[in-house]
Write a structure and sequence with these properties.
The protein is α/β, with parallel strands linked by helices and 326 residues long. The chain contains ten helices and 16 strands. Residues 4-193 form the L-asparaginase N-terminal domain.
Length: 326
């Protein structure tokens, strides 16, 4: 029997067309029209569409992701679908996919997709990506795989996928572990399962979390600003395997002393924070002073995890445990 898949549209280039006046892409395609433009979609699944928003993905926020997560769980509980596809702008697609992966209760397949070319452009990649995402969400093998991301016929784990090129349609990559699987001819083929990780279902979230990238010779001014601005958490995107320069180290530790949770990630696009060194400002030395290590999460994903986790607790040891389960 054909599966029922709900396509939830949020916006992004996939739903954009060229504005004849400016020559630039702008939101222009409704959710219904997006699905209607995919040839043969109904051969694979019964599809219905829910338009959540129609915005560039930089206009998404943790609050909107929280709403989207609740919407998917509500539709799932009502038994309205066997699986879900979310269409999204690619700039922050991996953030929303990760947030959903962390927060959803449903075990039904959820597959996020987007496009790098607008709906009016030559070789628009949106229709093919929607078709592949619907096929992925409708496949029994996708159950229990967590939130998936499917573009260019490759299927990725939301936690690990990242955008790697500003304009090329073949932009999504898992730089650490490779794809989970592929849409291959008439089949959906998985080569491995995603690694299990913590899920969080807080009643509320704390979006007032900053992400600060480190640079060589960085001083502590911007970190001080975060403290003065009343942030509830900070992620420092450190150097190499999670090291920070000496002047900002002092201010990071001062933030921690004020009771503000600080997570240390790496600005390097692959690999993980590692306790390789013990000099001042190294990941090992920071951990000894109560700084939470972000593992293999990118800074922006670690930020979202902290946004969610702070909805549950701001107790440093509990936050540390949550990050260790990733
Ligand atoms: N390809 C895209 O969707 C990029 C667009 N700027 C967005 O993220 O909304």
């Amino acid at each position: 029997m054909k599966k029922h898949i709900i396509v939830i549209t949020t916006g992004g280039t996939i739903a954009m067309k060229k504005d004849p006046e400016t020559g630039g892409l702008v939101p222009a395609v409704s959710g219904e029209d997006l699905a209607a433009a995919v040839p043969g979609l109904s051969d694979w699944a019964d599809v219905s569409v829910v338009e959540f928003s129609n915005v560039p993905s930089g206009w998404m926020s943790a609050e909107k992701m929280f709403d989207l997560s609740h919407l998917i769980d509500k539709l799932s509980e009502e038994g309205k679908a066997d699986g879900f596809v979310v269409t999204h702008g690619t700039d922050t697609l991996e953030e929303t996919a990760f947030f959903l992966d962390m927060s959803l209760k449903t075990e039904k397949p959820v597959c996020v997709t987007g496009a790098m070319r607008g709906a009016s452009e030559l070789s628009a990649d949106g229709p093919e990506n929607i078709l592949s995402a619907v096929r992925t969400a409708a496949d029994d093998m996708s159950k229990g795989m967590g939130v998936l991301v499917c573009l260019q016929d490759r299927i990725y784990a939301a936690k690990d996928v990242t955008k790697s090129h500003t304009t090329n349609p073949d932009t999504f990559r898992d730089l650490n572990y490779g794809p989970l699987g592929a849409v291959y001819g008439k089949e959906i083929i998985y080569g491995r399962r995603p690694m299990p990780h913590a899920r969080l279902h807080p009643e509320t979230i704390e979006p007032n979390v900053w992400l600060i990238s480190a640079w060589s010779g960085m001083d502590g001014e911007i970190v001080k600003c975060a403290g003065k601005a009343g942030v509830k958490g900070v992620v420092i995107d450190g150097l190499g395997c999670g090291n920070v320069p000496p002047l900002c180290r002092k201010e990071i530790l001062a933030l921690r002393k004020q009771g503000i949770p600080v997570v240390l990630t790496t600005r390097v696009p692959s690999g993980s924070v590692m306790q390789e060194y013990s000099y001042e400002g190294s990941a090992l030395s920071m951990k000894e002073s109560g700084i939470i290590l972000g593992g293999d999460l990118s800074g922006w994903k670690a930020r979202l995890l902290l946004v969610l986790a702070l909805g549950e607790t701001n107790e440093n040891e509990r936050l540390q445990e949550i990050f260790e389960k990733m």
